Structures are given as structure tokens and as C-alpha cells.
Amino acid sequence: MSTFQPLESDASFQPDCELCREAGGVMVFQARHWRVIRVEDEAFPAFYRVVWRPHVREWTDLSLAHQAEVLGVVDAVERVLRATLSPAKINLASLGNMTPHLHWHVIARFEWDSRWPAPIWAPSAREVAPAPRERLAVGLDPLDAQVARAVAALAPGA
Amino acid sequence: MSTFQPLESDASFQPDCELCREAGGVMVFQARHWRVIRVEDEAFPAFYRVVWRPHVREWTDLSLAHQAEVLGVVDAVERVLRATLSPAKINLASLGNMTPHLHWHVIARFEWDSRWPAPIWAPSAREVAPAPRERLAVGLDPLDAQVARAVAALAPGA
What does the pLDDT look like over B24-78, one tens digit per residue? Predict the structure, then answer.
């Protein structure tokens, strides 16, 4: 388990930005430029975020080399979710309207989930029982560990 | 204006897939591997899609070289939208739950839009008048032309 370290000494640090100040979820792995967290969302238990550690607003504010670095991490998280959970679909998104600090959502979607086939931000379409996390093929702790191993291999100097 | 050409001779072609069979919006530019369309959405007029032409389901089904090719196109579309429209935020997403044929949404968001600051898939929060397309700093035809020029520069052999 990585520990969250805010980049308070970085020129980009914004004390009023939630993703500058806080991890934003369960810490999975932290590298020099990015961290991976798991979002604690009961409806979507296999929901990870790749957060760029410096405060950057838009995707095109990153250099192409840094875009490639982030996308490599997104790619690795998606591969673990596909291999372990066999989801109906992976959803990727970088929105940030409310928290304009660059982060990518990587979400495993299932036909039983409460919004399927709509995006997760649509109104709920059904009650889900048993609870979503009970339906995953693996528990969240071993899933986090697999994600951490996959992305650690991409961290410079790892 | 590019013309849509379905890849009927490609082994991946799925006749029941909407994005194999149809352009999916206003054709902006077509290259060998991808096309750019503008989605005709009254609420979100500056909404483009980068569609991978062969029928591929998930992002990680693409090779890293093809991922980089697609992301270069997404990057170019985002840059044109930022430079011409000064949106409050750009939203990027690859979902495909209903149409599992790889495509990226590139959407300019504004504080006046009907869902702001929620994702576009959330319920509408307000009426917008005058109409969204009247509020853009440039018309949709010149915007399409600028997007087409930007992505044409990325097309192999262009």
C-alpha cells in the first residue's frame, strides 16, 4: 500500500483543490508523476482513477511524453480489470468539471450494474442485490494488489 | 468534407454495429484507420467523436502504436476546441456500452450548458436560451473545417 504524499512544494500546488490536498480514494500506488486510487463507490466497486500528481487542468496541458506515461498506466489498469473481472465493458473518461485536476476514470461495467448500459452518471435504473462488491470474481484487496503490481512496473525507477 | 466509407471488406466488419454501418454524425475527416465526426446534439453543439474504423471493442484491444495514433487525433481535436471556443472544460470519454465499437468523445463544456458541472449524461439542470449553438464563438461549419485541417495533418500519407 502506497502512502499519499501531497506535492506541497510544487509550484502547481493548489490548496483549495481536493486532488492536490487529498488522495481522493484508497491509495493503490504512487509514482513520481501520478498515483492510482480506487474510488470508494458502492455501486461501482471496480472503479479506479489515475491522477496526475501536479495540478494540471486539461489533457492537452500535458506534454505528449507525459500523455503517453498516463495512458500507459490507464492501459495497465484496464488490462487487470479485464483479466480478473471479465467486465461487460470498460469505461474510460477524463472529465474534471468539478475537480479540474487531471485524472482518468477506469471503470469496470457489468450488465447487472445499476446504470447499465447508460454511463455511470445517468440516473439509477435498478436495485442491485446482492451488493455489487459481492459479485466481483475477486475481492477488492487482491484486486488492488494486482493493479498495484501492474502499474508499479511502469513507474520510472521502480 | 470527407465521405463515409464503411469497411465492409474488413474481417472485423459487423453489419449490426451502428458505427460499422453508418458515419454516426456529420463527417469531418476520414483517414485510413479512423474518422472524426461531429455529433448532432442540440444541447452540446461542440461534440466530436474520434471513431476507430475497424470494429474493435476495447481500448486495450488496440496496439500501443494504434492507441498513440488515436490519442494524437483526440489531442488535436481538443486543441482546436480550446483555441476557438475557450470552453470551461474539455470532457474526454470512451464508454461504448451501447455501441461497443471504439470511439472517443471530445466535448467542449460551458458553464451555461444544461448539465454543467455534471457529466453530459446526467439529468438536465436548466433550460438554455438562446440555443447552445448560438453561444459558440464560431459557427459549426468553420469549426468543422478547423478540426478537419488539424486532424488531416495527422493522417498517414496526408
Answer: 999 999 999 999 999 999 999 999 999 999 999 999 999 989 999 999 999 999 9
Tell me the longest C-alpha to C-alpha distance in chain B: 47
Tell me the C-alpha distance between B7 and B34, whole Å: 11
CA nearest A72: which of B100, B59, B89? B59
A116 CB within 8 Å of a chain B CB:
yes
Spell A76-85 as b/e; 16+ CB within 10 A means b: bbbbbbbebb
Cell of A111: 450488465
Shortest CA gap A57–chain B (Å):
8
Per the DSSP assignment, residues forming a β-bridge with B108 are: B90
User: How many angstroms separate the CA atoms of A106 and A93, rounded?
Assistant: 7
ipTM value:
0.96
Residue type, A83: A
Contact present, A110 and A131 (Cβ < 8 Å): no
Look up residue B99 and give its three cell numbers: 455501441
